[in-house]
Amino acid sequence: MTTALIMAGGKGTRMDLDYEKPMIKVNGRPMISYVIEALIESEFIDKILVAVSDNTPYTSEYAKKFPVRVIHTDGEGYIEDLASILSNRKYVEEDEVIMTIVADLPFITGEQIDDVLDNYYKRGKPAMCVSVPASLFKKYRITPTLVYKGLVPTGVNLLLANNEEQDQSIYESHNVELAFNINTLNDLNLSEHYIKK
What we know:
Blueprint: E1 2-7, E2 25-26, E3 29-30, H1 31-41, E4 47-52, H2 57-63, E5 69-72, H3 78-86, E6 97-102, H4 110-123, E7 127-133, H5 134-140, E8 151-160, E9 168-172, H6 185-196
Helix pairs in contact: 1-4
């Protein structure tokens, strides 16, 4: 079984907006809707969980329109909330394959998710980080959150639900859609420009 876990409980403070980051509209729709629909389209994903918190009440209500399970977390931070979910057997079984994904990837598709999962299963390692080349960010003038050895994490990761340190591989994707992790108002403006192109 492969479970997708959308992390949608953060404050999104870098956006400096009054409303919840997952609910920011791109091309007239909340960003999280694109992520959910891509996961539904995936051939590999069996179950979708959406992690929310007191920071994201509108996201919580909106997600209930989809065939997902909404999980309320303490909203203490990405790592803390993830660890809490992975150790809770009400939500995931031990050693179940979990794809963690951020709620702000409005251009991701089911086909790209399947490409990531296909690579994960071929590698045979318990964990995988999905990154894109920093050159893509430069080309599209997107602001990277972190650059490590010429690669930028996309906010998509694979791991087993056991809260143990896991041997990890890095998958370098060249899909520019994975680079549009909307973290700033500039990223949002660029995404609208990308749609028009």
